[in-house]
Design a protein that fits this description.
It is a single chain. With about 325 residues, the protein is an alpha+beta fold. The chain has helices spanning about 40-50, 55-60, 65, 110-120, 130-165, 170-210, 220-275, 280-290, 305-325, and strands spanning about 1-10, 10-15, 30-35, 65-70, 75-80, 90-100, 100-105. The protein has nine helices and seven strands; from the N terminus they run βββαααββββαααααα. The chain has a seven-stranded mixed beta sheet with strand order 2-1-3-7-6-5-4, with helices on both faces. Helix 4 (about 110-120) crosses helix 5 (about 130-165), helix 5 runs antiparallel to helix 6 and helix 5 runs parallel beside helix 7 (about 220-275).
Length: about 325
């Protein structure tokens, strides 16, 4: 789908591309390509005189394939995180092409920041919209969304921390089962943080590349320099915060695994103590179970209760010893 945003006063009016329509989209400020067809790609290429990168080219991870200048246009690709609050976070590449203060965005998903910013530019606003201003606004929207996502993830990590260190389950098996479910939650939070950091790093690289790209309009450079610096500072700060949360996730994972090991060791210790406690009675029973002809206790009237008492006493003494030593 191709939607062109044409400036009308202090807002941008969206117009959907229709090959049969006579609408003049050549002077649009922003061309938004979502899962575009080849016909839509050719139309935008004819309007700006550039080649639209393919989906495969957008997925390349080499810096030279993601950030480059060609024919007077800047081609910049970021990794965007979408559906960060769902069961499985997803990342998708989004390409920004900037030429003559006209912007082209190419994407194969519908992130929430795009929808929010599209509604924003369609309303009356103070100031004028250009391609660079739209790109900065979109990046700000992505950073705001990532900041909200990191805040939500941080709250979730705090909740997991309380559950890890405040688990009051009395049964070891149930406590181990609860900790194992927490490991799954920790893993999901770790995935979100990894993708969020990747997205923030890509935004930071885009801003740095755009700042160093040459332009003849020095006035525009001065006007946008402060906005770009603030954008870069926010991305760096959020990246540091994501790194802090990742370290906390690692600590919680190690702590959870350690608690599971302690619980498992406790169970093994109980079995070991039980084996030691029942070893002396087993020895007594084995002695009196031997088939020798001469065993005086066999003809003794109190032999049977004596053997039972001896087995009970030989089990009780080790148990009391372990109890006093704190092993049980």
């Amino acid at each position: 789908m191709l939607r062109a945003y044409i400036r009308e006063g202090d807002r941008l009016v969206p117009t959907d591309f229709d090959p049969a329509s006579d609408a003049n989209l050549g002077g649009a400020v922003w061309y938004s390509l979502t899962d575009p067809t080849r016909e839509e790609d050719k139309f935008v290429e004819s309007c700006l005189g550039i080649d639209i990168p393919t989906r495969r080219e957008m997925q390349d991870i080499e810096p030279s394939a993601r950030l480059y200048s060609e024919d007077g246009a800047e081609f910049m690709t970021i990794t965007a995180l979408i559906d960060g609050e769902g069961e499985q976070p997803i990342k998708t590449p989004i390409t920004f092409v900037l030429r003559n203060d006209q912007l082209v965005t190419v994407r194969y998903a519908d992130p929430k920041p795009f929808r929010l910013y599209e509604r924003f530019v369609s309303r009356a606003n103070k100031g004028e919209f250009g391609g660079e201003r739209v790109m900065i606004g979109l990046l700000e929207s992505f950073i705001d969304r990532l900041a909200q996502l990191l805040e939500t993830t941080g709250d979730g990590i705090d909740q997991i921390s309380r559950e890890v260190f405040g688990n009051k389950a009395k049964k070891p098996t149930r406590k181990t089962r609860d900790l194992q479910s927490l490991i799954e939650q920790i893993g999901k939070k770790g995935d979100v943080l990894t993708l969020a950091r990747e997205s923030l790093v890509s935004i930071n690289r885009l801003v740095s590349f755009h700042q160093t790209a040459g332009t003849d309009d020095q006035r525009a450079v001065r006007e946008r320099r402060l906005e770009l610096k603030v954008l870069q500072r926010d991305a760096t700060a959020l990246s540091d915060h994501a790194a802090f949360l990742s370290d906390k996730i690692t600590f919680l994972l190690d702590a959870t695994l350690g608690l599971i090991n302690l619980e498992q060791n406790q169970i093994i210790k109980i079995f070991s103590v039980a084996a030691v406690v029942f070893l002396p009675p087993t020895l007594v029973a084995s002695i009196y179970g031997m088939n020798f002809d001469f065993m005086p206790e066999l003809d003794w009237a109190l032999g049977y209760p004596f053997a039972l008492g001896l087995m009970f006493l030989s089990a009780l003494l080790p148990y009391l010893f372990f109890k006093r030593s704190g092993w049980l």
